[in-house]
Design a protein that fits this description.
Residues 148-213 form the HTH luxR-type domain. The modification 4-aspartylphosphate is found at residue 55. The protein is of the alpha/beta class and 221 residues long. The protein is built from 11 helices and 6 strands. The chain has helices at 13-24, 40-47, 63-71, 91-96, 109-120, 128-138, 146-152, 157-167, 172-179, 183-197, 202-211, and strands spanning 4-9, 29-35, 51-55, 78-83, 101-104, 125-126. Strands 2-1-3-4-5-6 form a 6-stranded parallel β-sheet, sandwiched between helices. Helix 6 packs across helix 11, helix 8 (157-167) packs across helix 10 and helix 8 (157-167) packs across helix 11. The termini are far apart. The relative contact order is 0.11.
Length: 221
């Protein structure tokens, strides 16, 4: 199989070099280029990456603008936003604009490589801390939402258990540990949950969990 093609977009040369070394160390991943925000659209067109790691804060052209431009392309790559802060105010905006993930720049090398593989396979990636931040931005202090509650009633009791923990920002491994399940079983439950809820990713499912009154606040776990 051909390697997954990755483009890294960041205004700092040192950051681009570091990320390139990490991602390029995996035999199934190939860093086809790196550039600043102003060059991103051109580089995507020329290099055809499958995945773009995109800094959200750049002085020449901010990451949200770049993301929106990339999403208009005929065959857009999967884009994960990179940030230094797990409380970045752009997280919700980026996800609504079509980002497939949000990663901290200090993500462990093996986790970064794993995340790129998930993105290439059509999945979404969010660290648990970022998930909690997104939920905080989406959920207000009101009571349970009737539409969210209606959607939740489609789930089995075990799926409701998984959804509640998903709403707390727990990872698959943490959910598996909490419910004494295998991680593969948790993945299967999450796939079923997303389908029944009509949610595009686990973040949207987590928001529904909160609006349905199933999960505790983002700090609860």
């Amino acid at each position: 199989m051909s390697p997954t093609r990755v483009l890294i977009v960041d205004d700092e040369v040192l950051v681009r070099s570091g990320l390139s070394l990490i991602v390029g160390s995996a035999p199934d991943l190939e860093v086809v280029g790196s550039c600043s925000g102003g060059q991103a659209e051109e580089q995507v067109g020329a290099l055809g990456p499958h995945v773009v790691l995109l800094d959200v804060r750049m002085p020449d052209l901010d990451g949200i603008t770049v993301l929106r431009r990339l999403r208009t392309l005929p065959d857009p790559p999967a884009v994960a936003m990179l940030t230094t802060f797990d409380t970045d105010e752009y997280i919700g905006t980026a996800l609504r604009a079509g980002a497939a993930g949000f990663l901290l720049k200090d993500t462990a090398p093996e986790q970064l490589v794993h995340s790129v593989r998930i993105l290439a396979a059509g999945g979404s990636v969010l660290s648990p801390t970022v998930t909690r931040t997104v939920i905080s931005g989406y959920v207000d202090g009101g009571g349970p939402d009737t539409e969210a509650a209606r959607l939740a009633r489609q789930l089995t009791s075990r799926e409701l258990d998984v959804l509640a923990l998903l709403g707390e920002g727990l990872s698959n491994a943490e959910i598996a540990d909490r419910l004494y399940l295998g991680t593969g079983t948790v993945k299967d439950h999450i796939s079923a949950i997303l389908g029944k809820l009509g949610a595009a990713n686990r973040v949207q499912a987590a928001v529904i969990a909160h609006r349905a009154g199933l999960a505790r606040g983002p700090e609860g776990a």
